[in-house]
Amino acid sequence: METARIIIDTDILIDLLRNKAEAVAFVTALEEKKLVLTTTVINAFELHYGAHKSRQPEKNLQATNKLLSRLAILPLTSRSAQKAGHIYARIETKNQSMGLRDTLIGAIALTREFSVATNNKDHFKKIDDLKIIST
Q: In Å, what is the CA distance from 135 to each residue of 7, 20, 70, 104, 131?
């Protein structure tokens, strides 16, 4: 791992909420290395959105809040919004597509010099210079 500062993406956070062994082991290993584990306000939105849409919103919101309380939540700043705009425009000029939320998460990571831990490498690999870690 090239950096000790990591943003945990929504797909891994969801797997943690579902207590999937691979995600639990992955995050536990990162925690044991005393790495700085965070997520972003965008990921927090995605988790809350999913919890509200679920069949058991109260239970899932409680679990979401408990998980998020373990992590620092990085904001979207003017600097990261500017970077996201640049990334999104560059990707579109290549006739590619990428979700806006993943673009925002990637821009937050780049502007703060964090890696992104995700299993959604196909989206994030479109962002130049972004360090990606997967389970």
A: 13, 12, 19, 22, 14
